[in-house]
Design brief:
globular, two-stranded parallel ribbon, binds nicotinamide-adenine-dinucleotide, UDP-galactose 4-epimerase, domain 1, Rossmann fold, seven-stranded parallel β-sheet, alpha/beta, single chain, 13 strands, 330 residues, 41% helix
Amino acid sequence: MTEIKRVLVTGAGGFIGSHLVRFLKDKGYWVRGVDLKYPEFDETVADEFNVVDLRLRESAIDATKGVDAVYALAADMGGMGFISSHHAEILHNNSLINLNTIEAARMASVKKYLYTSSACVYPEHLQLDADVKPLKEEDAYPAAPQDAYGWEKLISERLCQHYREDYGLDTRIVRFHNIFGENGSWEGGREKAPAALCRKIAEAKLAGRDEIEIWGDGDQTRSFCHVDDCVEGIFRLMNSSFSEPLNLGQDRMISINELADIVANIANVTISKRHVDGPMGVRGRNSDNTKLRKVLNWEPKISLEDGLRRTYAWIEGEVIQKGIVRSVGV
Ligand code: NAD
């Protein structure tokens, strides 16, 4: 078996990347993190952290020097609000990031390369009902993703496949389904549904209000996976011999309205929901985890309620802290 000692995590200043760096450090790896920015909510524990722009070829070449494996997480991304309104920017930036990173990995003779794809690769027409059939890996073709974000992910998956076939780069491809948890974006436009709902409910609670806004009718469905399960799954996949795309998420599907009710229950408040116009993404989405269970002999374990309890506590703390900062005028 190839020995991996030194690893690169791209997107190490982001949500999943910063958790992955900590996980890999705990496992004893030497870790280099790169990103456009340092982690926002915590000090990095990486052995080396470089602020770089992977849209530049030279930066990608420098980033991959001397590492045995690459976890490629860097991406220009966000929640539905961002993804549905920045198609050109997303396609342009993410294409450059992934073209440069995989080519630099090949040039550096990296032994293993893991690419983080998304459930957004699946065709929109398979996700028109809230009560949707769970998506199997094979469902990605014939291709018809909803947004540029999904198209780019699909192309970068193909890039991994062809680098493996043509150059022998040992690639892995993981398709995340809605990862959430502490230390992720919770305001500013890039946050996703669980973080946005935690923030809205915390703000309403602290201001003594009992109403929050929900985009659309709230009947759109998703499954949600805690970030601790996500990094465990990434690591297991990297250490498997499976090189085809693999779903990584929970397979308990709930609506956004139900998600809001769970968060309100955790916050110990009663809220009413005002449904307003807003981007909703596909109508329904769930992960078929049959292959995940078979390949990794494992599946995500943290319940939605447990994960949301931790996430809500962290976001309520952030909201309170921000309120204090605002009130002293900093
Ligand atoms: P994130 O936005 O928190 O992290 C991505 C990081 O990439 C950011 O810190 C960003 O600064 C960095 N980045 C962007 N452009 C860069 C550039 N030009 N050079 C260097 N770094 C750059 O997102 P995340 O939730 O941690 O997602 C990690 C990966 O997982 C991404 O590839 C994302 O598309 C994928 N993914 C995430 C989810 C999810 O639910 N969070 C779902 C599907 C796929």
